[in-house]
Write a structure and sequence with these properties.
470 residues; Spore Coat Polysaccharide Biosynthesis Protein SpsA, Chain A; 3 domains; 7-stranded mixed β-sheet; globular
């Protein structure tokens, strides 16, 4: 795209202030801003900036015409031999790849750097990236294959993330099996004028386009082509904040294949009606995730005859997606965008100074991975045990914090040890009163720990600071 094309688009979208600003810049500054403008998806911007199509923010109460229905999870037989065999054969054939969304920073944890670099385990303080890598290595050893891993970083943390992997020698993985794809961005827009905001005189104020941008990022970056060349056909999708996740789960993948689904998801039972988590449901007849602020309160609190919440299928952000579906969404679908009003510092083109607003001043746009659920064939929800698979690190304190996640890891390992007859001292909630670790390389599942136990490799007493590893 040349300068005339950019000016033509800016004129078409009414961005007169930015055109005037470009004319005031030096050649060097103008060239830098032009290069950034060249990367924008102008068709998307045209849709977002048109007043008649501007997406609306989520309302606390949905419009009266919205209807909701719960969805039934996949029902596993008591002995799911078919699903397990399907999943294991798919993995062993090299058809499965891992995709991790990791564009965020660890600032909410009090950590300066990519969240995936944060030390999450109780004793080693092993980083999230390292935990996932060890789980991949464990799966590779079990199935005798190499599993490709795509990480979607952001422009803000891509360099740090790649450097972290190099410094840690890819945590034992091959460099050639890891692919870094940088997430797309969209500019922030002044809420009053609709004009694009600047971060500096020669740079737009950009924000990630959300997890829904994964489809185009995978295609645009070359990751899809890379995965297909390696023989992958199914993507195991995880977010970076959950150390209990099973990146390569044969039972889940087998159920996904058995259901002939293009897009399957793991869910956990909500702990309370007011838990701030989206739930899988049908909205106006379409399978999707309904955010907690969208579902009417009377439905949120509705229980069945057994006392369980009817709308209880909480979203874990763990999915399985077919590569063919990802490719078709990237090529053909226009997923809806959500508009959020934020407080965004900006470079003022009139005063030539950086402004920190006192109140929200800018719209940011993003879409989500689950926005593709309504167009997927045979979407499936797979219920899992929260204590075994879901303990995310989102906050420094309180719910879903560093403390609760480490407690979740310890509780899981204590439960595994109890299953082979080894007692660990625990408090009244079942959380161990000592710190120890079972690394994924030693055992990444209860069945793997049982094998280690039969081999005589599990000590009969667990002590403070013990790390079980190979």
């Amino acid at each position: 795209m040349d300068s005339l094309d950019i000016i033509s688009w800016l004129e078409r979208l009414g961005q007169t202030r930015l055109i005037d600003h470009l004319n005031t810049l030096s050649d060097e500054f103008r060239e830098r801003l032009h290069k950034q403008l060249e990367t924008l998806d102008w068709q998307v911007l045209e849709q977002l900036l048109a007043p008649r199509t501007l997406p609306q923010t989520h309302a606390p109460i949905p419009p009266p015409h919205d209807t909701f229905e719960p969805v039934a999870p996949y029902v596993l037989p008591k002995a799911p031999v078919v699903e397990l065999a399907l999943g294991e054969a798919h993995i062993r054939a090299g058809k499965v790849a891992l995709f991790t969304v990791c564009g965020g920073q660890g600032s909410r944890l009090g950590y300066e750097g990519p969240k995936g670099c944060f030390g999450v385990t109780p004793v080693r303080k092993h980083p999230l990236f390292g935990v996932f890598a060890e789980k991949l290595l464990a799966a590779q050893g079990r199935y005798g294959i190499e599993i490709p891993w795509v990480l979607m970083t952001s422009p803000q943390n891509n360099h740090q993330t790649r450097s972290f992997f190099k410094e840690n020698q890819y945590f034992g993985l091959q460099e050639s099996q890891v692919f870094f794809a940088v997430q797309g961005t969209l500019p922030a827009v002044d809420a009053k004028t609709g004009q694009l905001l600047l971060e500096t005189p020669d740079s737009l104020s950009l924000a990630p386009d959300g997890t829904g941008g994964s489809f185009k990022t995978l295609s645009r970056s070359g990751a899809l082509s890379w995965l297909k060349l390696r023989g992958a056909s199914t993507l195991s999708y995880i977010q970076v904040d959950n150390p209990l996740v099973r990146p390569v789960d044969p039972l889940f993948l087998g159920a996904h294949l058995s259901a002939k689904s293009q897009y399957s998801s793991k869910s956990v039972a909500k702990v309370a009606p007011d838990e701030h988590v989206g739930v899988f449901a049908r909205k106006n007849g379409r399978f999707t995730i309904v955010e907690y602020i969208e579902l009417p309160r009377e439905l949120t609190e509705t229980r069945d005859g057994s006392g369980n919440l009817v709308y209880s299928a909480g979203n874990t952000a763990i999915h399985a997606l077919e590569l063919g579906f990802i490719e078709s969404v990237a090529r053909e679908a226009m997923l809806p965008y959500t508009r959020t009003l934020k407080k965004e510092p900006f470079w003022d083109m009139d005063s030539h100074a950086r402004v920190t607003p006192a109140s929200p001043n800018a719209y940011k746009f993003e879409h989500f991975i689950f926005d593709a659920l309504p167009i997927a064939k045979n979407p499936m929800v797979f219920r899992v045990n929260r204590a075994e698979e879901f303990s995310p690190v989102k906050n420094a304190t309180g719910v879903d914090s560093i403390e609760t996640s480490r407690a979740g890891q310890l509780k899981q390992w204590a439960n595994w040890l109890a299953a082979v007859g080894i007692a660990v001292p625990v408090d009244p909630t079942g959380v161990p009163t000592i710190n120890f670790e079972i690394t994924p390389l030693f055992a990444d599942t209860l069945d793997a720990l049982k094998e280690r136990f039969l081999e005589g490799k599990v000590p009969v007493q667990v002590t403070e600071g013990l790390v079980l590893s190979i």
